[in-house]
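Customer escalation, tier 2.

The customer says the design service returned an amino acid string that "doesn't look like it belongs to this structure." They asked us to rerun it and document both sides in this ticket. The original structure tokens are below, unchanged.
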């Protein structure tokens, strides 16, 4: 069996419950790209088994601990366990994440369900090599009408893998109709952002519905996720996204849901917030769901100033008694750092604010207790007292 020998520091990481070993902690490897390797400690003990990458900085992604080598049934068993967990959540939606990589003990594999279709992403050499087996297991377990590989994320380049989108099973149509609670969406699994929807925000959209009222602003709306969920509880909704394509989708989705109180504007949200402030606009409910401002550690300082600016402006636009739903999906910005920057924004806006809920990504995107990086999405629901 191929092996990789790791340093003392690497061994300590594994013992602390982290599933990744970086290049600097691998002393020696005798393996081909995508192999399952026995992970050997500096004193020659087998510590577990991992997927090996010869290109990525993350050389080893653990799939098992201890010295029992994983058998052939491992992949299907883990897929079945991931599916059973989602079933147990009894989600009120036909689109959700079925497999969330490391958090389902299937490192670097994503599987999202959109109605009768599945969309998969293989984000390492090890998973890429096993995609035919994984596809076969998914067909056996779920009998989907089609499976699409959305293998176009840039991280694949770090693994030396190409970027492409292709149907792996059945036929996958250009759009799929799905439902989240009472909201209907049309999703483009081939070209939409991520795998088509921001599924990780589904439960936060649900939570936001409990507070929404009056005039709503949904900034960074994409295809109208929050706007559509909140429109039934609101007088009017203004949805803003920089992408013309997204704004066309918001309008289509509003019509599909027979909602006539949503206005969608293709605008830079930073400019639009400033302009709304200039004309003296006021809102009862505001959602801020920007893209990850900090894609890496070096970008954190700039990201924080971006978060501060939009939250400051939103808190000024918010009426007393109003709610702000503010999110960060940068895993490099911790919850503490995010709370601190929003607190600074509140102080600068001279707003008295209470914390109504502290939330994270939905339960179908589990967080690993010992892997802080997996807690990437923070969502605060705040109330402006005065
Ligand atoms: N709230 C959405 C997801 C938002 S994802 C949902 O629940 O589904 C972030 C969105 O921000 C993307 O659609 C992207 O097009 C948009 N975006 C990025 N930069 C922007 C900017 N400066 N102004 C407005 N929108 C922006």
């Amino acid at each position: 069996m191929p092996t990789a020998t790791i340093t003392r520091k690497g061994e300590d990481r594994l013992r602390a419950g982290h599933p990744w070993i970086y290049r600097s902690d691998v002393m020696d490897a005798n393996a081909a790209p995508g192999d399952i390797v026995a992970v050997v400690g500096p004193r020659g003990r087998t510590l577990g088994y991992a997927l090996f990458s010869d290109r990525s900085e993350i050389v080893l992604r653990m799939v098992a601990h201890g010295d029992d080598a994983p058998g052939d049934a491992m992949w299907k068993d883990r897929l079945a366990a991931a599916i059973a967990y989602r079933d147990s959540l009894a989600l009120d939606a036909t689109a959700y994440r079925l497999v969330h990589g490391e958090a389902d003990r299937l490192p670097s594999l994503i599987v999202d369900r959109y109605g009768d279709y599945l969309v998969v992403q293989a984000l390492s050499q090890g998973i890429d090599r096993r995609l035919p087996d994984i596809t076969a297991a998914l067909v056996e377990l779920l009998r989907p009408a089609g499976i699409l590989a959305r293998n176009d994320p840039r991280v694949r380049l770090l693994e030396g893998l190409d970027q492409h989108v292709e149907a792996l099973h059945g036929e996958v149509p250009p759009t799929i109709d799905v439902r989240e609670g009472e909201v209907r969406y049309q999703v483009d699994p081939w070209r939409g952002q991520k795998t088509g929807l921001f599924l990780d925000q589904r439960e936060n959209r649900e939570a936001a519905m409990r507070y929404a009222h009056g005039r709503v602003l949904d900034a960074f709306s994409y295809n109208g996720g929050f706007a559509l969920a909140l429109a039934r509880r609101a007088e009017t909704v203004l949805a803003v996204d920089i992408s013309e394509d997204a704004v066309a989708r918001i309008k289509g989705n509003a019509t599909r849901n027979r909602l006539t109180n949503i206005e969608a504007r293709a605008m830079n949200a930073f400019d639009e917030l400033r302009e709304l402030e200039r004309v003296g606009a006021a809102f009862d409910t505001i959602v801020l769901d920007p893209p990850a401002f900090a894609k890496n550690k070096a970008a954190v300082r700039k990201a924080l100033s971006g978060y501060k600016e939009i939250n400051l402006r939103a808190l000024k636009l918010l009426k007393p008694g109003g709610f702000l739903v503010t999110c960060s999906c940068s895993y490099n910005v911790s919850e503490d750092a995010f709370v601190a920057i929003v607190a600074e924004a509140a102080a600068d806006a001279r707003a008295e604010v209470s914390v109504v809920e502290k939330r994270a990504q939905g339960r179908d995107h589990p967080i690993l207790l010992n892997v802080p990086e997996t807690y990437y999405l923070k969502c605060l629901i705040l109330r402006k007292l005065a």
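Tier 2 assessment: The sequence is consistent with the input. The chain has ten helices and 20 strands. The chain has a mean pLDDT of 97. Sent an explanation to the customer and offered a walkthrough call.
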